[in-house]
Amino acid sequence: MDRLEAWFPYPGFRPNQREMLEFAAETAREGGIAMIDAPTGSGKSSVVSALLAESNGRKVIVAVRTISQLSTFIRELALVRKVQPALTFSYLVGKGSMCPLGGEGDPYRRCEGVKAFSSSLMRERAQKGSLVPTEDRVINEQIRKMDREHPLLCPYFIKSRVFVRGEEESGLRMAPSQTLRTRADRVKKEAIAPEDLAGFCNGLCPYETMMQAARGADVLVCNFHHLFNDEIRDQLYASLDVEPKDVLLLIDEAHNCGDVVTGIQSVVLEDRTLEAAMTELSHLSRSMKDVNAVRQVLPNVAAFMEALQRSQKGEDWFDPEQFHRMAVRGTLYKGLEEIVGDLSKIAERVSEKNKSAGIYKESAVESLTEFMYRVYRAGSDMTFLPLYRSAEGHVELEVRNIDPGEKMQAIGKAHAACVLISGTLSPLSAYQKYYFGDLPVRTISLPNSFPRENRLVVCAKDVTTAYRMRQNKKNTDAIVGYIKTFARVRGNLAVYFPSYQILNTYAQACGSRINGKAVYTEPREASEATAALQEFISLPERGKAGIIFAVCGGKWSEGLDYRGEMLRGAMVVGLPLAPYNSVRKMTIEYYVHKFGRDGEFISYTLPAINRALQALGRVLRTPEDTGVLVLAEERFLEPGVRVGLPPWMQDEAEICDLDRFSRLVMKWS
């Protein structure tokens, strides 16, 4: 038995799986960056086994986007532990999900604040001889009296700490309590599901428990923000006492990295936030230096935003130099850099003052400071695009990061090895260029391992949702014909559209029932969407079937696992391109300048193809599943779009008109 097999928890490899795992193991041995494009059913989660087989004492960190993906790796690692009993692992999700304390504001700021106050009080009491905080009368009385909406102390953190005497008589050191260490040891050896964590911790801080476990664990599974947010990642690695060069990094669902990274680095200023900042500064004008100078700037920013209300465009670019001139006009400042400097000092004071009062919500002044800094940076950094949105008398400004490349390259180069996996990283060459530019990257693309006879892949050659054809009655009627023909396929079905507007057009045209199946239209509100989806996926249990009408990239198109009878077919109507406007045009121009002729494909076409593939990917989740996949859009046949489809889909796609489509689906009816 070789080293890879010793860490592989299954009796045999799936088709092409061993090749994929050996590829990952080689990356772990030799270092560098690797990208794996492997369809559903390839056994991608077992890549963690390959990294462990070559870890040689290095920690393996797995970054995931959702709780469901985290649970997948917990199950996978529990299986690996059956063949490698000494394996230990832990996980971290966002503090908002793990924190039982409650209260308003950002959970990370709240945690930082209450830990600081709790530590200060515990140390003060320890110096008076009370080394076990949970047994201290004063601490317990303070906890009992505190405002639960604005907590200053955390009983869960307090329970996780004790004080021990150092070598010197007066020396005291805060250490993990025995209760915390015992629970953390159990976590490393047991697969505790996220939903069971609070009960398992039994009054301890869940985050502290999992962090304590993570320090000595072989594997840590965490969410994307722990990796892509610089501040959180630095704190995490410091707490783990590891350097990136000693970490093997695995990034799951890697097609999402770009959106997550750019989202973290973007910032928005709403008109109500500016008004709140004016109010906050007016209250500080007597007690803080430089406040009155900054207050002169804010009416200028408000006037800039008010002028944009008259724009006929819902979204457009604004000139950072024009904003700069408007902001400093009539003030004591010469430039944005000086404004940002003063705002930063004020924001820091405000933050400390709020924390001392148990207020952990980000203040408006802090939000304004971050925005002004981003506008200042946008003046010289083309990866940040300043824009505005105007609707119903309200304006918001945004400085949007449009290029994740610098961040992705820094992360890739810093780690001993970095492996990215996804079922939709096609074409790999485009994602490689988008994320890593000219860095050397090893790539592998796997074929679909599920039985070909279990699926039908179709691409229509006679319909489109291109803007020029949206009012064409013949085209609209043909799309309705495709949907109604598709509705003959047995079982639950899904039809995905590029936008809610197009969805509503065809929902009205098709009616509330198609071929006897009820139509479930994706609501805009998340709370309503969950209930409707649960009703839809339960239909097969009652011997019924329905059709969902949803939006590509929406609540019902990604991150959901419709196994077996839950979904027997998916159709994507149209190519889900983002709306083309001046902001999109500037983004494309940036990428064309960076990558030449590939720039438009990477920045505009590739995201649309991925949204379509993610929607189709809700079907055929196991080798036994059968289903029909339909691309109802002729543009998928254009060479510049077709190249973005996975090779197996390009090979299998039946190109048809409506008549041929009717004949093809008869077998599946």
UniProtKB/TrEMBL annotation:
Q: Where is the Helicase ATP-binding domain?
A: 3-308
Keyword field: 4Fe-4S, ATP-binding, DNA damage, DNA repair, DNA-binding, Helicase, Hydrolase, Iron, Iron-sulfur, Isomerase, Metal-binding, Nucleotide-binding
UniProt KW Metal-binding keyword: yes
Q: Name one GO biological process term.
A: DNA repair
The cross-references to InterPro entries, in alphabetical order and at most eight, read: ATP-dep_Helicase_C (IPR006555), DinG/Rad3-like (IPR045028), Helic_SF1/SF2_ATP-bd_DinG/Rad3 (IPR014013), Helicase-like_DEXD_c2 (IPR006554), P-loop_NTPase (IPR027417), RAD3-like_helicase_DEAD (IPR010614), XPD_DNA_FeS (IPR042493)
| Keyword Metal-binding listed | yes
Q: What SUPFAM superfamilies has UniProt attached to this entry?
A: P-loop containing nucleoside triphosphate hydrolases (SSF52540)
Q: What is this protein called?
A: ATP-dependent DNA helicase
